[in-house]
Every structure is written in structure tokens, then in C-alpha cells.
From TrEMBL:
The keyword Transmembrane applies. InterPro entries: Peripherin/rom-1, Tetraspanin/Peripherin, Tetraspanin_EC2_sf. This is Uncharacterized protein. Residues 337-369, 387-412 are annotated as: Disordered. One of its GO terms (biological process) is visual perception. The chain crosses the membrane at residues 21-43, 55-77, 98-126. It is a multi-pass membrane protein. Its main location: membrane. The keyword Transmembrane applies. It is found in: Membrane. Keywords: Membrane, Transmembrane, Transmembrane helix. GO terms for cellular component: plasma membrane. Residues 352-367 have a biased composition (Basic and acidic residues).
Length: 412
């Protein structure tokens, strides 16, 4: 039983072709959106590349570029095909292309789902990657001579995303962020702080200038923050703001920033997937309808259309039989016993062989595609021999007939 069987009139086929052309162009636009989102994500990754420890997100722009280009090229081709397939004469030019086109479209549709799942899976690893990258960047913040770009990027991150520290502003108390060239080691206070730490680092209760919130009504002290405790009834964010600092950590801010981009990408993938699914379904209906119309021979008549002709299970069994026949054909070519048996059956004249081939035609059709191909080659060879006169059984009657005719003419 056919799956999704419909009967389409001539006007239905024309309307379906027009709708498919529009859907293909919409899919081209969504593919262009994927390219734009890929460029935006690539720019954001380049912007904060030193603040993410793992390269977990660099695969996403590559997938976006490849998928976007594939969607654009495939749907531009599909728009042309659907425009021509509304006419029976022009349909014959694309008849052999439609089946591969539907197959490639199905593969692309499945790839879109996998790409959306990839974005969601990478989002699960995003938090740990951002945490490790920020911890490493904060430890190297003081090495402005060796890596001045890192200090600038971290300051810009805290200013643009309105954050301070990894999780809170106290994270700066646990690392030395002041460069060594700005420390006066002759002072007793500096020496005491260095000696009080096992690693010999200069730790202080201060934060960089980029942690200050310019919109805060309170001044930003930056140093001696432990001597200015906030009221105990305030939350962590409120206590930070009461000191004139940003209220959230950069891990949360940067993670949300990248997560919003991944959500946009997933939504774009699902939108393209929905349009591609509609296009594939419509093209399949148009293909089967036009093929049945060609068999009927009347371009104005109604024609049946379906998604699967024999049902899902029957189609799967048919494909398995085709694969088995192809594999059997491959192994039979290497079997000397089979070749000898076939040679033994090929005795007799060309006419006898051709007659035997015709009688055995139903049996050969059951043997699969390769056996039919061999049969056709043998028929062509036998016909070529007959044409060139290489068969002695065919030449003998001709020669005898020729002599008898000449003798009769000589006798006359």
C-alpha cells in the first residue's frame, strides 16, 4: 500500500510546482542566515579566543559554513528543477536527476538535525571551558609585558559584559594581578604580603579598574575592599554594587553570551530543517505525479502521487534484495564454476542461442540486474557476429544458395 497517496490534477501540479519554487527560495534565504550566523560566531570566538581554554566552539562555524553553502546550492538547483517539472516535456530532462536530488536532500535534512544536536552538546561543555580559560587568564593578567593583548581583552570583557572576576569580585583576591614592576619591594607592607603567601605572590584585597561600574551611585574604591564590608542583609550581587563594582562573574556573563549564540544557531538549523523537509516532501509528490503522467501519456489527465509506493517495510525489503543481488553479482564474476557452467550452456548456433535467450528471459529477470546485463551483452555479440558473417552455419546456406543460383544462370 502506498504511503501518502494523493491524486493530483493538472492545476494541482502547477500549484505544487510554484509553491516548491517559493519554498526553495525561502530555504536559500535561511541558508544565507546560517552563513551570517557562522561569520558572527567566528568573529566572537576570535574576539575572546584567549578566554576559552578548549577549542570546543571552533567546529561550529565550519559546520555553519558548510551547511549554509550546501543549502543555498541545493535549493537554487531545486528551484530550477521544480520550475521545469511542472511541464511534461521539460520534466523528461530532469527525470534522472530527481532521484539523486531527493536522496541528497534527505541526507542534508538529517545533517541539519545532527548539527543542531552538536550545538546543544557543545553548550554542555561550554561552562567548564570558560571557567578554565578565565582562571588561566586571571593568573596571566600581571604579565602585561609578555602578553599585553591578554590584559586588554580581559579588561574589555569585564567592561562590555559588565562582570568582575570569575564568579565574583573576590576572585581577584586569590591571584596576583599587579605586575611586579609596579611593586616596591623595599616597603615593609609589600614584603609582608609576599612572605605571607606560600607561592611568593603579592595578594591584595583589590580589583582592576575594569571591575568598576560607572553607573553606580557609589564611588569605586578598588583597594582595601575588605575594610569596607557591605551590609550583611544584602546579597552577593547587591553587596558588589554597593561597593561600585559589577555584580556578576564573567563566567556567567560569557557563558550566557555564547549560549545565546548557540541557541540562535540551533533555532536556525531547525528552521532550515523544517523548510527542507517540506521541500523534499513536495518534490517527491511532484516526481511521482509526473512519472505516472508520462506513463499515462495524457498531460491533461489526473495522476497519482505518493511518498513511498509500497510502504516502508516493503521498500526496505526491496532495497535489501537489490543490495543482495548486487553482492551476488560481484561474487559470481569471480566464481570459475559459475563461468564454466554458463559457457557449457552457450553451445549451438547464434539463432539457437538467441532463441534460448528469449525463452529463458523470465528466468533471467528473476536473477537480478547483473544477469540481465550479461544477457544483453551476449545478444549484442551474437547479433554482431551475424552481421559480419562469422557464423559458419549462417554462411553455408547463403553460399549454397549462391552456387545454385549461378549454376541456374549458367545453365540458362
Amino acid at each position: 500500500m502506498a504511503v501518502g497517496r494523493l491524486v493530483l490534477t493538472r492545476s494541482d501540479r502547477l500549484s505544487l510546482a510554484r509553491v516548491l519554487v517559493v519554498l526553495n527560495w525561502v530555504s536559500v534565504a535561511t541558508g544565507a542566515v546560517l552563513l551570517c550566523v557562522g561569520v558572527y560566531l567566528w568573529a566572537e570566538l576570535r574576539r575572546w579566543e584567549e578566554l576559552v581554554s578548549e577549542d570546543v566552539l571552533w567546529a561550529v562555524p565550519v559546520v555553519l559554513f558548510g551547511t549554509g553553502l550546501s543549502v543555498c546550492v541545493l535549493n537554487l538547483t531545486g528551484a530550477r528543477i521544480c520550475l521545469d517539472c511542472s511541464d511534461q516535456n521539460r520534466f523528461l530532462r530532469w527525470k534522472l536527476v530527481l532521484a539523486p536530488y531527493v536522496g541528497v536532500s534527505l541526507l542534508l535534512t538529517a545533517g541539519l538535525l545532527l548539527a543542531a544536536a552538536l550545538c546543544l552538546c557543545l553548550g554542555l561543555r561550554l561552562d567548564s571551558a570558560v571557567e578554565a580559560g578565565l582562571s588561566s587568564a586571571m593568573r596571566r593578567y600581571k604579565d602585561s609585558d609578555l602578553n599585553p593583548g591578554l590584559k586588554t581583552r580581559l579588561d574589555l570583557l569585564q567592561i562590555h559584559l559588565s562582570c568582575c572576576g570569575k564568579d565574583q569580585y573576590q576572585d581577584w583576591f586569590r591571584v596576583q594581578w599587579v605586575p611586579d614592576r609596579y611593586l616596591d619591594r623595599t616597603k615593609a607592607g609589600v614584603q609582608d604580603r609576599i612572605r605571607s603567601n606560600v607561592g611568593g605572590a603579592y595578594l591584595s584585597d583589590s580589583v582592576p579598574f575594569s571591575c568598576c561600574d560607572p553607573a553606580s551611585p557609589w564611588p569605586c574604591p578598588q583597594t582595601g575592599l575588605t575594610a569596607r564590608p557591605a551590609p550583611h542583609f544584602l546579597s552577593e550581587v547587591q553587596s558588589s554594587r554597593s561597593l561600585g563594582l559589577w555584580g556578576r562573574g564573567c563566567r556567567e556573563a560569557l557563558g550566557r553570551h555564547y549560549w545565546s549564540i548557540l541557541q540562535l544557531i540551533s533555532f536556525s538549523f531547525m528552521s532550515v530543517w523544517a523548510f527542507e523537509l517540506l521541500v523534499v516532501t513536495g518534490v517527491r509528490y511532484l516526481q511521482t505525479s509526473m512519472e505516472n503522467l508520462v506513463l499515462l501519456g495524457d498531460p491533461l489527465s489526473d495522476s497519482e502521487a505518493w511518498i513511498l509506493e509500497n510502504g516502508l517495510c516493503e521498500t526496505a525489503r526491496h532495497n535489501l534484495r537489490v543490495i543482495k543481488n548486487l553482492s551476488k553479482c560481484y561474487h559470481d564474476d569471480d566464481d570459475p564454476t559459475w563461468t564454466a557452467n554458463q559457457r557449457g550452456r552457450r553451445g549451438g548456433t547464434a539463432n539457437q542461442r538467441e532463441r534460448r535467450d528469449v525463452m529463458n528471459q523470465p528466468e533471467r529477470e528473476e536473477n537480478g540486474l547483473c544477469e540481465t546485463a550479461r544477457h544483453n551483452l551476449r545478444v549484442i555479440k551474437s547479433l554482431s557476429k551475424c552481421y559480419h558473417g562469422d557464423d559458419p552455419n549462417l554462411d553455408q546456406p547463403i553460399r549454397e544458395g549462391g552456387r545454385s543460383q549461378s549454376e541456374r544462370e549458367g545453365g540458362v
